[in-house]
Task: structure prediction
Amino acid sequence: MGSGDKVMIMLGEAFFESSEEDATELCEEQLEKFQTTIETLDEEESSILEQQSGLKKELYGRFGKSIQLEDS
Result:
């Protein structure tokens, strides 16, 4: 936090003085990076859930009621 044109930004465990414009740019870059990571993980989750569903169907088809799988 800061006032005026100079602000303090935290990188790791240290604070650095920076212009408000540079700090805003850094925050926007980090936000884009995290959003991209979240989108990638969401796609990966969807893929894994599809595979899990297919495997459950295959196992129930093969073993019927003699197998119990978690519902999640």
User: Anything to note?
Assistant: The CA atoms of residues 29 and 39 lie 15 Å apart. The chain has one helix and two strands. Residues 19-62 form one domain.
